Request: fold
Amino acid sequence: MKLFDFPFFPETASTTAGSVDALFFFALAVSALFSLLIAAFIFIFFVKYRRQHAGDVGHAIHGSLVLEIVWSVIPLAISLVLFGWGAKVFLEVSTPPKDAREYYVTGKQWMWKIQHPEGNREINELHVPIGVAIKMIMTSEDVIHSFYIPAFRIKQDVLPGRYTSVWFEATKLGTFHLFCAEYCGVEHSQMIGKVVVMAPEDYQIWLAGGVAKSPVAAGEELFSQYACNTCHLDSREGRGPWLGGIAGTPVALVGGGKAVRDDNYLRESIMLPNNKIVDGYQPLMPTFQGQISEEGVLQLISYIKSLDGAGAAERARTDSR
Amino acid sequence: MAADHRSQGIAILYLLSVTVFFSIGGLYATLIRLELLTPKGDLFQPDTYNRLFTMHGVMMIFFFLIPAVPAVIGNFILPLMLGAKDVAFPKLNLASWYLYMIGATFTLYSLVHGGVDTGWTFYTPLSTTHSNTYTTATALGIFVNGFSGIFTGVNFIVTIHRMRAPGLTWFRLPLFVWASYATSLIQVLATPVLAITLVLLFLERTFGIGFFNPAVGGDPILFQHLFWFYSHPAVYIMILPSLGVISEIIAAFTRKPIFGYKFVAFSSIAIAVFGFLVWGHHMFVSGESPYAAMVFSALTMLVAVPSAVKVFNWMATLYRGSIEYSTPMFYALGFIGLFVIGGLTGLMLGTLGIDIHVHDTYFVVAHFHYIMVGGALMAYLWALHFWWPKITGRLYSGFWSHLSALLVFVGFNLTFFPQFILGYLGMPRRYHAYPPEFQVLHVLSTAGASVLALGYIVPLIYFLWSLKYGAYAGRNPWGAVGLEWETTSPPPVHNFEVMPTVDHEAYEHRVPPVAEQEPYRVVKYGL
Reply:
């Protein structure tokens, strides 16, 4: 937003941006009120009680318990309201809708590599349809970066060795800034890009101009290329557990613990497989660290998430009827 | 003087050294603001710019802000306020200064060879595996400097406990002493964590052990927890002594006790304690769990309350005071305004929903400069203005000091207020090139910085001038109450000819004081 061509306030272009701004305006109003009150009192006292004669002293008033309580409790109450409202907005911004479409982001010095679920890949640009909830699943190939779209009021650090995620639903057509917001070395200020929000039809047209292979298909190729399918059998009699329908479900581990099989768990199982062994299985899986790229791991995971729980043996039984 | 272990001499040694390091840090700030005049990165290579902002942060935080008020003002004035002839461990005090200089030497060595480019926050894995600059030398400099702070902290704590004059009970102490006590507690408890963190950083960088390397099972976020566990309390080390100074100035220039003395005293302790509990508010979007984030946000709200209590008590002190329009008083009031803005924006940053948007943007930069420059640095300068007559025995020009006050206040706000707007617009930190629509705000900010710089150079001139040509100050030019004003200006070798005894409350004006000398020609200008 510009005021006489003076940049004043960013665009508000996502479903959650408005909540963030409302909270900010509340905090701003409270701050302005208190600042003005304090300034007014100081100014009035300063003028009214100016020293009249060289030897004057002030009127010693030692304190007032009532005042101390009042001006401790009121700021505390206001700040707790700020906390509560802030936590509510935070949870809203951090909780993606269940049906959000998953896009994959790899940050590396000094570019953003983005993969659409449909298979299209972009560097430093992100084309999205308007009005669709989109979740970015992100990792870094080297140092910590941070994925920041000011117009959507979202930001999330992107870490090596881990997945973090952020979500948004765009509400305005147009082009918006994408910045890296965690200092990451020499070209940190150049690790920027554009987010292009398009009408759904235009998005489809744009997609069609891109590469056809979806992450799921690419992941399926990798699954057989790296021989994952030789141990993770859907007959459930393989050396490794069957991976269908497991996303987000808990599993018991050797040694008595439990784990939730989310994206980070899946990545860890590929990179450091001996960290968590599923109960009933042996520590036989080799590590694929250094052999599969981060993008490859993301593709494998999207393939695994697409596998359904019913195994081939089950299908064989139903087919033969 | 460098072998003399009297705290007076050590204070002067620190005064000279912090001024040098402040100038180096200030030079870097100037270069940064010059680069940011234009959207393209055209003044420096990106690599150079990264070193500029890193060294600006390192110099200013570790070699200026942390020692300034405690080591310069504290060393000179604290023993005077207690009626003591020196601190408890004078030789340890001198060792503090030597450690500070050794630490500075390592850092300057690194600087001369090109400096460090990791940011003063040294986040891993950038600083451990990806940076090829003199990280170890700088970390070593900061490590050694940390011990300087720990020794000063220990010294002050013991001095305050054991060396108070007869009759000077805890609740008769000047509030600057309470603030120094709280600061010293933090120095002693928090700085070792910094030391450990730097050792781990060194081990990882040199031997590749992998505490912070995810490829071998380490965690880069662990570094952030360790780093901020020290660095958040560190910001209270930087501001608490300044809050103590403001209490002293307000009491002196209203000629009455600070309203709510016990509450102000305990608020310093409360800030020190709560300050240890909130480090995770630097990490809301780092990957810490949402539950941890909520706990840290709630605790951050608590820290705001003791600060608010101080501000309200200062305001209440003005009521029915006898207010003198001296330079230190103007500054104290300017300080309150800037501290309030800095503090309220801190509350905004502690609010989860807002922080997601403004974290790592210029909003944060503006916030901490309001507190560090608008708060801590200003209070240090006004402490110098308030106690300069005591330390040197000379008075300085009223006209020039009021003018520099105006320059600093206007320059400061012009430099940093546009940065709040820049931050909400989305301008990230540590960028040397930026989208063109941000330029007008950056130009305003750089213009303000030039005015601010002038505001810092002018005092240098009149302070130096006053050493030779300033009027003699006499014992108590301000007509204030406190043991430091009962001895000569400058004080004799052991601070007092005769050990004073105390039989009155803090800031109690019992006899209408007569200023020994008209402080300066303020009256002629009607100021």
